[in-house]
Specification:
Elements (H helix, E strand, L loop, with lengths): L8 H18 L9 E6 L2 H17 L3 H8 L5 E8 L25 H20 L3 E2 L3 H10 L5 E10 L14
Antiparallel strand pairs: 1-2, 2-4, 3-4
Helix pairs in contact: 1-4, 2-3, 2-5
Length: 176
């Protein structure tokens, strides 16, 4: 049997995305609290995510989001990573408030934000290990958050994944 890589490219991309989700899950977390959630977006849901990004651009005036939304069409998968809001009770004042009780609910605990960043870094490293191309997009994450794909999560980041001859997520032409 001869299997041409072009015939299994979507399968290879999905495998890379699964490894990324594993890396995000096993990444170090503040106080060891597992508040990270991940998911893989494929198929028609990538188009749904792209449309939500266009709506986001219309509402906010952020024109680069149009470019990001169109760029998702080059991805066979998008990994989304977010955190459930949880105070760590350290009273570290890293968020700008003296104690966790003084911090308004709308302000995220800094450790939650750090945890997402570490998980995203681990996920992208896993993609690099298998030579899959990625790009970290807060715009895709915000659209996924608006769609509610990671229940009760904030600070969602989207990472489109591609396996092609050239990384389609770089050397992009601005749309403004």
């Amino acid at each position: 049997m001869v299997i041409n890589e072009r015939e299994i490219r979507k399968e290879l991309t999905a495998d890379a995305a699964r490894r990324m989700m594993t890396a995000a899950r096993t990444a170090p977390k503040g106080k060891g609290m597992d508040i990270i959630e991940t998911a893989m977006v494929t198929g028609e849901d990538i188009e749904r995510l792209s449309k939500e990004m266009l709506q986001l651009s219309d509402e906010t005036g952020l024109k680069f989001v149009v470019r990001d939304a169109e760029n998702l069409h080059s991805a066979d998968a998008v990994v989304i990573i977010g955190t459930r809001a949880r105070e760590h009770g350290l009273n570290c004042s890293h968020c700008g408030f003296k104690t966790c009780k003084e911090k308004p609910e709308a302000i995220p605990c800094v450790l939650n934000t750090i945890d997402v960043g570490i998980a995203v870094g681990s996920a992208c490293a896993a993609a690099a290990d298998v030579r899959a191309d990625t790009r970290v997009m807060f715009s895709a994450g915000l659209a996924a958050q608006r769609l509610g794909w990671l229940e009760d999560c904030k600070g969602v980041i989207g990472i489109p994944v591609s396996v092609s001859s050239k990384n389609p997520f770089f050397d992009r032409v601005p749309k403004f």
